[in-house]
């Protein structure tokens, strides 16, 4: 079992993200996972630094901390040839500590290039082609590819690591699990769904299984809920909403009727370690072996102390 920390680029300015990564390593986390967005979910979050620049700085500043994109969309805003090159470089400069998490993306970040937002079936087909292109380029040499949606012409990634990074594919149903097993090395999910794990393991016996656990640590429930209402209420809408809305203003409107009780259902809220451990156990019991703690509480440093003193001893015994 490995325990990771979620670096939320939407909620903090770039230098603070780097500082938090160093604190995560100091607190004993095995890896950090970082979102890869162009926009925040809500304007009240206020930030959206460039993930790949941040990972370069973090790789150079840490020793043993794993690095995971959670997740990158390699189909629109980025062409997969760029991601193949970026991930290979990250694997080299991090001495093999990098994992490429990929998914089919959100309208929030991908519409900015002015190409519209494809329907779900097309997005999944595009992700398949993107993974095929990445795998092709990682074979070395000059490569070309002609797909229905994506093309590659005489491209070569010159700097490839001795060991290629693992690819974890975000999954929510049977088609995406099958894609993860076929063209990925692992699975990424935000729900403690044992069926996803079982389906993946039925097709692939090994590979990392990443599960993202929603927490909100604070000295009181009220303090945690105040921050959640201000900055994280978008998260209760579900994936069909999260993937389709184009801008923070739309998420603001869509989450206007969210109640504190809704947030209590979606997050482990407050100072009680048993609540946080129970939320984590849902994922470990479902079979996930790389647990990502996404703390949305008001004080990251207080959470690092809480993890090191209270959660970690319980999770590593």
UniProtKB/TrEMBL annotation:
<dbReference type="InterPro" id="IPR011251">
    <property type="entry name" value="Luciferase-like_dom"/>
</dbReference>
<dbReference type="InterPro" id="IPR019945">
    <property type="entry name" value="F420_G6P_DH-rel"/>
</dbReference>
<dbReference type="InterPro" id="IPR050564">
    <property type="entry name" value="F420-G6PD/mer"/>
</dbReference>
<protein>
    <submittedName>
        <fullName>G6PDH family F420-dependent oxidoreductase</fullName>
    </submittedName>
</protein>
<keyword id="KW-0560">Oxidoreductase</keyword>
<feature type="domain" description="Cyclic nucleotide-binding">
    <location>
        <begin position="148"/>
        <end position="224"/>
    </location>
</feature>
<dbReference type="InterPro" id="IPR000595">
    <property type="entry name" value="cNMP-bd_dom"/>
</dbReference>
<dbReference type="InterPro" id="IPR036661">
    <property type="entry name" value="Luciferase-like_sf"/>
</dbReference>
<dbReference type="Pfam" id="PF00296">
    <property type="entry name" value="Bac_luciferase"/>
</dbReference>
């Amino acid at each position: 079992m490995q325990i990771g920390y979620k670096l939320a680029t939407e909620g903090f300015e770039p230098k603070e993200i780097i500082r938090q990564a160093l604190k995560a390593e100091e607190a004993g986390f095995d890896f950090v996972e970082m979102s890869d967005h162009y926009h925040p979910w809500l304007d009240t979050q206020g930030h959206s630094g460039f993930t790949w620049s941040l990972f370069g700085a973090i790789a150079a500043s840490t020793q043993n901390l794993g690095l995971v994109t959670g997740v990158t969309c390699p189909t629109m805003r980025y062409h997969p040839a760029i991601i193949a090159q970026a991930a290979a470089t990250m694997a080299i400069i991090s001495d093999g500590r990098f994992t490429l998490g990929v998914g089919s993306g959100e309208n929030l970040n991908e519409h900015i290039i002015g190409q519209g937002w494809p329907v779900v079936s097309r997005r999944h087909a595009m992700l398949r082609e993107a993974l095929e292109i990445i795998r092709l380029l990682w074979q070395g040499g000059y490569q070309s590819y002609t797909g229905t949606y994506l093309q590659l012409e005489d491209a070569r990634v010159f700097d490839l690591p001795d060991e290629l990074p693992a690819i974890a594919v975000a999954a929510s149903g049977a088609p995406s699990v099958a894609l993860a097993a076929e063209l990925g090395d692992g699975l990424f999910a935000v729900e403690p769904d044992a069926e996803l794990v079982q389906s993946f393991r039925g097709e692939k016996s090994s590979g990392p299984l990443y599960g993202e656990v929603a927490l909100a640590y604070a000295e009181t429930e009220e303090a945690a809920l105040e921050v959640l209402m201000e900055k994280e209420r978008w998260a209760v809408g579900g994936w069909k909403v999260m993937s389709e809305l184009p801008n923070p203003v739309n998420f603001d409107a869509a989450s206007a009727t969210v109640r504190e009780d809704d947030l209590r259902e979606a997050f482990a809220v407050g100072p009680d370690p048993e609540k946080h451990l129970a939320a984590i156990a849902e994922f470990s019991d479902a079979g996930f072996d790389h647990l990502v703690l996404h703390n949305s509480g008001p004080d990251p440093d207080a959470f690092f102390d809480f993890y090191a003193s209270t959660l970690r001893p319980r999770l590593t015994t």
